[in-house]
## 1
Amino acid sequence: MSRHNEWILILDYGSQFTQLIARRLREFNIYCEIHPYNVDLKEVSKPVPKGIILAGSPKSVNDTDAPHLQTEIKEWGVPILGVCYGLQLLAHTEIPGSVEKAEKREFGRAHLIIDEEGGLLKDVDDQAVVWMSHGDHIKELPSSYKIIAHTNNASVAAVRHTEEQIYGVQFHPEVAHTACGKQILHNFAFDICGLSGDWTASSFIDEQIEAIREKVGNDKVLCALSGGVDSTVVATIIHKAIGDQLECVFVDNGLLRKGEFNEVLDLYIKDLKLPVRGVDASELFLSRLTGVSDPEKKRKIIGVSFIDVFEKEIGDDADFKYLAQGTLYPDVIESISFKGPSATIKSHHNVGGLPEKMKLDLIEPVRELFKDEVRDVGRELGIPEHFISRHPFPGPGLGIRVIGDLSKERLDLLRNADRIFIDELKDNGLYDEVWQALAVLLPVQSVGVMGDERTYEFTVALRAVTSIDGMTADWAHLPYEFLSHVSGRIINEVKGINRVVYDISSKPPATIEWE
Ligand code: XMP
């Protein structure tokens, strides 16, 4: 889709912090995109970015397979900021061998001693705390660079090129521990690159509407609504752009939460006035999924079944040329990132394109946005707040929350337990305190006692996490009294469950979903 005119290119060399750079810049209303270091430069030159950031890497520039700098980008004449590996790469490209293994790996907080004020370091205090994480250091700085700050351990902490707009920092300005990091990125983006910070939810909507109109022409678009915020925002933008050339389908796949299909369909039709068809395909999905236990198999079957339903809905209407999806930026990053920590862990079924046979092109207007940004766009579009603040819900739904063999009975058990948990979170004012809450049905039966009877029933795990974008998460410290009350209700009210546990794992190393 269209790219905002004023933007910053972030080149990814595999560091786990690369995304944080993007997030920090976007907080300043600056549009930026992350691309792998070896991206085809033609892809990122329209329009040419106003600045480039070379991000960090777990590699050493001296490794034989070290990711390199495409030096042609220097010819664009736009400011460059190298961060950690990015800085070392700038030095190494000019003088091979100028970077070497440090005697002592530097990790953690350090104090910046400023040698030249202003510029990149404008309004940064002497002795400001910065966060270091590197095993190599620059032994010999090319003479075209000048040191503008050092630390007790690192003679080169920040540099500038003496003639060109090229800068580098050895520390990580993007992490929260570097308190002056925001100021440094702000200085780079506004003062050095000359950006104005004009990228807002409303400018985003206007740009997308224009791009969608241009792309779609007189053709028709099918939008698969999932009941979540992302696809709803997508459908609303497209509806604004092309009116009833859009048709939406909301599928009951038998894997939705209790009561969800009718509640959400109502909102689509009555509140948002979207042209939507509700399709009950639960039997199709369940007949294909019953007895399947492997998570990736479940995802594949669900993905294929969705496509089958969409194809049936389109029939032989040849005007349908596009399928709209609510793909988000973290999904995109996970699938393009260079050998980073984001190597594919689970296949998120809404990324990666459609099977050839469907012959539809994808429209993904929010694929450059993080979840919180999609929510801001949704508010700007007038979608009701209670809908905007819904927790994320995975495309494969409860299918990946019944661990092991799927069956209608197990799904119903989970639906009932889940409903109690979510209702109680809402009633106790805790729903908006957590990023996502869910119940998981475990394929484990255990012994219990109810009245005078011995029971041998299933276990439900409750999970609630806090997070900013779902990429990392911590388990939510919900009050014991609350958990005790929910556990009591589930065991008393859901026949077939006699044990409730609470998941206290963070991501990483665990993930949010159990499958
Ligand atoms: P994990 O479990 O990977 O989840 O920590 C991160 C976020 O992604 C959601 N998720 C999915 N969403 N299709 C989706 O559309 C999927 O297959 C899928 N798997 C996980 C998950 O709910 C969480 O918000």
Note: Residues 295-314 form the longest helix (20 residues).
## 2
Amino acid sequence: MEYDVLVIGAGPGGYVSAIRCAQLGLNTALVEKDPTLGGTCLNVGCIPSKALLDSSEHYYNATHAFAEHGIDVEAPKINWPQMMARKKQVVDTTCSGIDFLMNKNKVTVLKGLGSFVDAHTVKVSGAEEQTVKAKHLIVATGSTPIELPFAKFDGERIISSTEALSLPEVPKRLIVIGGGVIGLELGSVYKRLGAEVTVVEFADSILATMDGSIGKEMQRVLRKMGMNFHLGTKVEGVSRTGDVVTVTATDKKGNTVTVEGDYCLVAVGRKANTAGLNYEAAGLTADERGRLNVNDHLQTSQPHIYAIGDVVRGAMLAHKAEEEGVVVAEQIAGQKPHIDYNLIPGIVYTWPEAASVGKTEEELKASGRGYKVGNFPMRALGRSRASGDTDGFVKILADAGTDEVLGAHIVGARAADLIMELAVAMEYRASAEDVARICHGHPTYTEAIKEAALDATAKRAIHM
Ligand code: FAD
Ligand code: NAD
């Protein structure tokens, strides 16, 4: 059988790409090795982590916020099996939704490991083995957790995010190696549920790749919640004796730091996944980090073979993978689409949430471009006081000369949703004054965006 397009990997990159190909009239097949569609994101990533973040937030509010709101409840108890069952149900429903979409769009799903035979042929090894040919191929095989050489995952106590989403109990003392997105999101889940959580991070700040103001504010808030941090501290050893895991590390001054816990989550990044793909047989190459090499059009060294999502360079984000999936489908259909990588938002689903789009202040400083900064604290908003979510800020960076918005960074309630107003503004190359002159509903968190834009454009915020 020869298809117009064969997509390998059914994560958000692959399945979205397959749908877009089908919409464009291309005869499309999707190969997936795992039993369910949806990839990391739906099975062991975005969706289960957000389900647990939401459940743990309800528990935290019941134990920490209800009384202040005048709601007295008997001490709430965690029903862990139910919390896990709900998470599973959310995942199952979401994954089966992808089966529905494949049927609806008449995408052929081939279950099994896909490996290249040559540049147009892929062997699919599942319950049965078959060989399929395609005019165009899209590799969307995603990523897997990085394992530290001295902290091999044992699946029980020294774990990756995958096991951390399905623990048999709430840890008493959780050690998190890596103060990046996974460490803080999953660390928050267990902190809210009562674990003692200690984050050991090599960099001097948590969320080190985001605007510096975000790491500072998030650390202040999470510390207030009781999370412990060892920053500027490199983990060098992890050992397990029975149910106790011991992490040894060295801080910048050369002091040894030792932390004990009953579980240790290693969240030090993810690596491109090409296991079993046999990409060399198709003439493809990878870089020093194992990511498939692609040009600006996401074409590999074989122009008819594309690669997208976590398996190629760039942010490891579901929405980045999806955009790339759409773009390659449209290219195959002869269109000329474009992705503005500067406008891909980065979001951390802690509470408060953190979200960014465009340039950080550190990047603008390094580039030498003149810029202005507008800030507005959430605590000055009526909406924030009403809900009790007074932590955080909106920070807007604008060009010193033209006032064009160059970057936006938010910590606060619903920052994940708020950031999109600034992404739209930047897409249309709005100035800070354009944003400031939009009438924002009252009382909403979005008023902080208007105020920060007023501050950026002419230091004329109203409520500060
Ligand atoms: P993947 O989702 O990894 O999918 C790749 C698929 O390919 C898998 O199903 C795999 O089984 C399959 N595959 C691999 N090799 C083969 C082969 N040879 N043959 C057949 N099939 C194969 N991103 C966000 O944007 N927002 C979030 O909130 C978020 N939360 C996350 C939380 C966690 C705990 C983790 C781990 C990640 C999170 N991410 C989040 C990142 C997000 O999951 C990834 O960026 C995204 O899944 C990448 O999509 P992809 O399609 O490139 O790859
Ligand atoms: P990350 O790159 O965000 O953070 C890893 C952290 O580990 C870094 O800060 C790094 O300095 C630190 N580190 C590395 N080696 C260390 C050592 N030996 N000792 C101490 N610290 C060390 O990676 P992650 O949190 O594992 O997430 C992986 C990917 O998944 C990210 O690229 C992220 O984009 C994606 N993800 C996204 C979301 C989201 O969008 N909300 C959620 C989860 C994951």
Note: The chain has a mean pLDDT of 98.
